[in-house]
Amino acid sequence: MTSVIEMTIQELERKLQAIKELGFVRSTRRGPTGIGHTFEGLMGYSENNIAIPDWGLVELKTTRKKSDNLITLFSKAPKRVEGITPKYLVEKHGYWDETKSRPALYTTISGTEPNNLGWILKINDNQNELEIIHNGTKVAFQSLNELESIIEKKISNLALVLADSIKKDRDEFFHYNEAWLLAEPDSKNLVKVIREGHLLFDWRMHIKPSGVTRDHGPGYRIKEASLPHLFSKRKRLI
């Protein structure tokens, strides 16, 4: 059973301010998980769920300010244009994977500009849908209403702690100097976060030597530092 820490906003603010005043702190673990592990030690407990009056259950999350680290928000297969099977999608719109000697389609797509494979996300305001475009051709689409519903159901309230990061020799140091309390995932921001390139879409599939298509499931991802864009209720903690 997951443990929950009960804390008021004022108590959380004081705790975070004290950590901020420490300045840069040496990471207690090497690698990408060091930022969370170090922060847990400074907070004095490993639980990542806090119950805050008027905000409910909040998940505590840490991230490097300049990190390009992407997290998966949810997986949802879009509807393919009629006649486009998974195999056709890989063969026609994918590429040849030289390393693994197979047709593949692994790519991350944004709404700002076409990626190196010619993929881009477009909003069709008339149809109220997200279109997935390859070299100018609509390949798949997703109802914005459906995506909005998923966001409202899937995304938890967050206490997002951001840190500057520097490296000295083999060690990394963190300065936890910004934090936000985020609640009420706002589906109304969906179009904005897509057009500005915060919310990304992934194809993850290839064709096996047997000819069978292996689909790991398409996913919607976002940079950790961009998470505040998804919420309507925001409070700066430090």
Question: What structural keywords apply?
Answer:
single chain, 238 residues, alpha+beta, Alpha-Beta Plaits, seven-stranded mixed sheet, six-stranded antiparallel sheet, 20% helix
Mean pLDDT: 91
Overall SS class: alpha+beta
CA distance, first residue to last residue: 31 Å
Overall CATH architecture = 2-Layer Sandwich
* DSSP E strands, number: 17
Q: What fraction of the residues are assigned to beta strands by DSSP?
A: 35-45%
Helical content (DSSP H or I, runs of 4+): 10-25%
Provide the CATH superfamily: MvaI/BcnI restriction endonuclease, recognition domain
Q: Could you tell me the radius of gyration in angstroms?
A: 21 Å
Count of helical regions: 5
Task: Kindly describe this structure.
This protein is α+β, with helices and mostly antiparallel strands and 238 residues long. The protein has a single domain (5-236), classed as Alpha-Beta Plaits, CATH 3.30.70.3570. It contains 5 helices and 17 strands. The protein has helices at residues 9-20, 34-43, 86-93, 144-154, 190-195, and strands at residues 5-6, 25-26, 49-52, 56-64, 70-75, 79-80, 95-97, 102-109, 119-124, 129-134, 137-143, 158-168, 171-185, 199-207, 213-215, 219-223, 231-236. Strands 1, 2, 3, 4, 12, 13 and 17 form a 7-stranded mixed sheet that branches. Strand 12 and strand 13 (171-185) form a beta hairpin. The radius of gyration is 21 Å and the shape is globular. The mean pLDDT is 91.
